[in-house]
Amino acid sequence: MNDSIRVQTEDFNPGEFHDWLKTGGAEAGAIVTFTGIVRDLAENSLEGLYLEHYPGMTERALEKIVHQARRRWGLGRVLICHRVGWLRPNDNIVFVGVASPHRAEGFEAATFLMDYLKRDAPFWKKERTRTSEQWVEQKASDRAAAERWQSKP
């Protein structure tokens, strides 16, 4: 199988994901990965994030994003892993990795996947600080990042 889509509560090992991408075949000349971690944007008062999703619906949305990337670039293996549940600052939250024949295509495809994931994947995020809890709205910058791909083939 060339695609691996995972939505899970458990932590992940980016090195193991890299190894899986690499074993996809000798035609890949580049492996590009991105690992997102929970960061504290609440001035050192973030206690954690809670991420919800709709099982099944979320995986289908991620599969659609991978399919769109495959129509644009010649890719080998592709892996997306997104965590849900309670996460603390500095925890792994998302991994996107692609194997491709050339580095430029790999970087573009990984960026595309992350941009579309941030805009189109049905995840809901609640932020807990020392003083409050609140649901986090999607950022305009995330929508704009995905929309810039509309003008590219």
UniProtKB/TrEMBL annotation:
Keywords: Molybdenum cofactor biosynthesis
Pfam families: MoaE
Functional pathway: Cofactor biosynthesis; molybdopterin biosynthesis
EC number(s) reported in the record: 2.8.1.12
Catalysed reactions, semicolon-separated: 2 [molybdopterin-synthase sulfur-carrier protein]-C-terminal-Gly-aminoethanethioate + cyclic pyranopterin phosphate + H2O = molybdopterin + 2 [molybdopterin-synthase sulfur-carrier protein]-C-terminal Gly-Gly + 2 H(+)
InterPro entries for the chain: MoaE_sf, Mopterin_biosynth_MoaE
UniProt superkingdom: Bacteria
Disulfide bond in keyword set: no
Enzyme class, UniProt record, top EC level: transferase
Keyword set includes GTP-binding: no
Description of how the protein assembles with itself and partners: Heterotetramer of 2 MoaD subunits and 2 MoaE subunits. Also stable as homodimer. The enzyme changes between these two forms during catalysis.
Entry's family note: Belongs to the MoaE family.
PANTHER family: MOLYBDOPTERIN SYNTHASE RELATED
Protein's recorded name: Molybdopterin synthase catalytic subunit
